[in-house]
């Protein structure tokens, strides 16, 4: 597989397995976001190597599913790595391909087809490039196909969801809830029952469902160090996947290394964002404090002005309402004295 990284920055990049449901990225052509059924006449493998572009990041479990299945089919992929932390998946050229900005996104240039959602990609590759004389990877028989589909939906809606729900608080620096871990155990218990009577998850032959579930179980093992000893059928099947899925160990190992680098970058960025938020809040509080001081000063000045005005309008003590000067009162005084003389 050839590999080129989107953008010009050479820093390590990637998406965490849990952020995987927040991490599935987009890209022109015909959009297929669900299972696209290719007619049998078109499903035969071509002798010429197809041109298949995969927008991906290896630390995303759904991306690893597609990598594993492509190896099984011996398909050569042109790998285009996207860094979610740098928001590569929101670049205009990618949004033209996939408006949902998800990874993995597969572009089959030969058929002018764009597919995202890992399960949809598995089905497309199985039908388009699977062996013409062997449909066991994704059976044509309706009943068998329904069983495979059920296993795929179980992985998406139950197993992977339980893992991500439990691990997300841990990713954020907290602790997972006990009730959420119980849901993980219940989901693994269901998988154990699937495997109780068959070699693979949907029967005696490997199917696309095994590739999807195997990556989820690997994430469960790597992230949580889950104890599979209580689930003997899952343990047996998991060891079987490690042995028989081409590239499984190498891809899982690389993903673990890249995940560690991602977590360091993610936590550093999160700490920087939190620090910036604190600084912004500190600035806002300081501004509010200054504004409050200014307002208080203005109120004090207004009160002082009001008090001064009131003092100016109040009468002086010891003065009567008749404030006329003495000389103004003299005529009345003289008249009184004259009257007294007459008496």
Brief characterization of the structure:
The protein is 56% helix and 7% strand.
Question: What's the layout of helices and strands?
Answer:
Blueprint: E1 2-5, E2 30-32, E3 52-56, H1 61-73, E4 77-81, H2 92-97, E5 105-108, E6 113-116, H3 118-129, H4 142-171, H5 178-194, H6 208-224, H7 232-244, H8 248-313, H9 326-342
Parallel strand pairs: 1-4, 2-6, 3-4
Antiparallel strand pairs: 3-5, 5-6
Helix pairs in contact: 1-3, 1-6, 4-5, 4-6
Discrete helix count: 9
Q: Please trace the helix and strand order, writing H or E for each element.
A: EEEHEHEEHHHHHHH
Shape: elongated
Average pLDDT: 79
End-to-end CA span: 140 Å
Give the % helix: 55-70%
Largest sheet: 6 strands, mixed
- Any low-confidence stretches, pLDDT <50, length ≥5? 6-46, 337-343
Tell me the strand order in the biggest sheet: 1-4-3-5-6-2
What proportion of the residues form beta strands (DSSP E)? Answer: 5-15%
Rg to the nearest angstrom? Answer: 39 Å
Give the total of beta strands. Answer: 6
Structural class: alpha/beta
Provide a descriptive summary of the structure in words.
This protein is α/β, with parallel strands linked by helices and 343 residues long. It contains 9 helices and 6 strands. The chain has a 6-stranded mixed β-sheet with strand order 1-4-3-5-6-2, covered by helices on one side. Helix 1 (61-73) packs across helix 6. The protein starts with a strand and ends with a helix.
Which tags fit this structure?
alpha/beta, six-stranded mixed β-sheet, 343 residues, 9 helices, disordered C terminus, 7% strand
């Amino acid at each position: 597989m050839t590999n080129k990284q989107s953008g010009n920055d050479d820093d390590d990049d990637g998406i965490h397995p849990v952020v995987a449901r927040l991490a599935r990225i987009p890209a022109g052509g015909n959009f297929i976001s669900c299972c696209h059924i290719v007619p049998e006449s078109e499903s035969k493998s071509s002798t010429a190597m197809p041109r298949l572009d995969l927008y991906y990041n290896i630390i995303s479990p759904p991306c690893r599913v597609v990598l594993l299945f492509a190896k099984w089919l011996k398909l050569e992929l042109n790998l285009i790595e996207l860094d979610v932390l740098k928001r590569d998946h929101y670049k205009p050229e990618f949004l033209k391909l996939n408006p949902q900005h998800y990874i993995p996104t597969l572009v089959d240039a030969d058929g002018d087809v764009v597919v995202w959602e890992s399960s949809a990609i598995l089905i497309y590759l199985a039908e388009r490039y699977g062996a013409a004389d062997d449909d066991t990877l994704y059976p044509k028989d309706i009943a068998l196909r329904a069983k495979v589909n059920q296993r795929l939906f179980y992985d998406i809606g139950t197993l992977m969801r339980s893992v991500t729900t439990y691990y997300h608080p841990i990713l954020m620096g907290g602790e997972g809830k006990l009730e959420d871990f119980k849901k993980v155990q219940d989901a693994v218990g269901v998988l154990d029952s699937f495997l109780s009577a068959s070699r693979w998850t949907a029967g005696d032959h490997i199917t696309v469902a095994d590739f999807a579930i195997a990556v989820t179980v690997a994430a469960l093992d790597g992230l949580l160090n889950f104890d599979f000893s209580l689930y003997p059928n899952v343990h047996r099947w998991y060891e079987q996947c490690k042995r028989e899925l081409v590239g499984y160990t190498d891809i899982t190992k690389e993903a673990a290394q890249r995940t560690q680098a991602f977590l360091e970058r993610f936590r550093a960025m999160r700490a920087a964002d939190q620090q910036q938020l604190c600084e912004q809040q500190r600035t806002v509080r300081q501004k509010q404090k200054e504004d409050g001081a200014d307002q208080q000063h203005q109120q004090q000045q207004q009160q002082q002005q009001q008090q001064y005005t009131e003092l100016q309008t109040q009468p002086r003590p010891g003065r009567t309402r008749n404030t006329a000067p003495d000389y103004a009162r003299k005529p009345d005084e003289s008249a009184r004295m004259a009257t007294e003389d007459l008496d």
